[in-house]
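[job 4417] fold queue: 2 targets
>>> target A
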Amino acid sequence: MQKARKLAEVCLFGSIKKPLTYHIPDELQSPDLIGRRVVVPLAKRKQLGVITAVDVNFDGATRPIESLPDLQPVISTADLALCCFVSEYYLASLGDTIRALLPQPLTSQLSQRVQIVSRERLEQSAVAGNELAVFILTKSRGRGIVAAHHLQSYSRAAIEKLIEAGVIEVDWNVQTSRLKEEDYQVEHVDSADLSIELTGRERGAIDYLAEWGVADLVEWRKTHRLTRKQIQDLAAVGVIKIAEKPPFVEPLKPISTREFHPTHAQEVAIGELTSALAADKFQPFLLHGVTGSGKTEVYVAAIQNAVKSGKQAIVLVPEIGLAQAIYLRLEDIFGASLGLIHSRLTSRSRYEIWNKARSGKLQIVLGPRSAI
């Protein structure tokens, strides 16, 4: 009698809107398959997707899942439940909803890698009899990276043990697409030779950078009506520097912060928010107040209470310019636990912030609607 195959429901990142059913080969069996990315056959090509359910019932013929490119799920069961709710509520396909939740590199790239942090500690673990350490040493062949799919036969506990010991790190091998002009910023060069001949517009643009230090390349070019050829020439002679935007974009001038002494109205609002957080249930609030009345301080107090209770927070603002202005103000309070994300960042930068929030290194994320 033929052994019953274990089936999985897979949501694809392509044009197929409904989940498809595939069977799971014995060598890919794992207790944590839900939320894992998979590579599956679709017609004559391969497609990337996410397992959303296992042990499903299906009477028709199925094709096998070909590989699991990662060592852990990319989406938690809680986030998957959220995606199911959003999919049903907004009449969107589950695959499109999951795709919107994940950063773009994870929906188009397939590889995860294991990086050797300390070869010395890896060799010590191998000598001590750690089978996984022996395997990584053999498979790395002197290199510092091993493709993650080679470790599929080893347990999560074995991998986590080496991670906790500072022997290896696991990360996605994100290949970014070619950068666009919007992905760059222009920076002032303190040691630049300004005795060279410059046009009036070029001189004005350089003076602007001397005052502010850095500017968005596109906005700077448009404001000072410079051609791309002029910018290339200025960079070539070392008058300016063109660089990829960093993951965290700070405003051009710091915003002063003031010591917070809540008014009675603020204390009432903070008390209501704190009670709702303590109840651990969803509850919307409308905070009313004119500009400058101290609404931001109430938000800050609510965020602090959320973080203290082990939760994370997302702060949404109407536009990118305002996000950058509020970022430094909140950074003065929350430090490295705060991340800024918006559509003008590169795909790698957005991925890095997503990954830090996912791992718990960031407790607060700030940005416009795209930050969701």
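>>> target B
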Amino acid sequence: GRQAGSYSVGAQMQAHLAGEDTCGLIDDVVTTIDTPGGVLKPGPGAAALTGFTSGGGYRGTPPSPPGSGSSASLWGSSANGAISTGTLTSQWFVLPDVADDQELAVNVSGRTAQGNRLALEFGRGGGDAPTPVGQRVLDDTDTAPESQPEYPTDRVDEVSPLFRDEWRPLHLAPSAIPPGADLVRVRATDGATDPGGFLAVTGPRLRDVVPVRAQLDTGGPVFVDWTLLWSAPCVRDGPRVSGGVAQAPGTLLKAPADIGFSGEASFVKGIGGSFGPMSVIGTESVVPTRLQGSRSRPAYADWGSLVRVTYPIARDAYDTEGTRVERWGWEGDRTPLGYPERSAP
């Protein structure tokens, strides 16, 4: 029952036996990448701030420096400490058509409920002033690590209010946008005075939603952590290891953080991992991903991670030459590299 309509190993095996083109769990994972030029442009009106600061009043490190990139517009309520309260109504932003493979997103720091509130209000232009056509509340309290439910119990609010100073994206699907809306603005309330009672938010932007499977067609070879091997059967472009030489991975599929142990032994130079040099000269960058359907089941949101690896030098740009040596079986093993020759008996 609880896996109906979603991923399961059993459904994956059944699909494979039926001849379907399946990639298991990977078919249910998407990447969320900022659309080039997707930061929404300011429209009519001006921001109304009480207790919020434009370009300040935030904690932590926002996704971009205030005034640039996805933080071109940014407001925060913590300039006077968590005890202060306030409200924010931003100026309107011009809302373009949002395609089926896109979403509307903002980044937020602080608590989105438990005394605070964050929403996107939509409007329709024309006439003397825009006409509001609906609001959509953005609240990720139920996806906070401190309050993730264990199936099948319902979420229960923590006795102590949440403290969330990390920046994270919140999004709306195209289907959630009211019909006819061509404007959008941010409305926020900081009504809490406890240590976590602050809120900061960026202006809206568009993001492209692309299946992870399509992302794996570029940037190979793809190293798949062994814990995910049976969940990603379509990934065949793995880095080769032969003749004492290992290919440099270009993409990594890493295991979920909550699996309880690290699957990175292959990258640890000190213990002889085949891909140890990657961690010495390569630079890893995590591509934002999301497991489809995890909004309703946050306990299962951590599917793993998609990581791109870049190198300051050309990959695998070397010549190799091999020689063949035949030895009789009774001659014994050759002396391992780094060990002294064994003395004759």
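[job 4417] complete. Note on B: Residues 66 and 199 are 15 Å apart (CA to CA).
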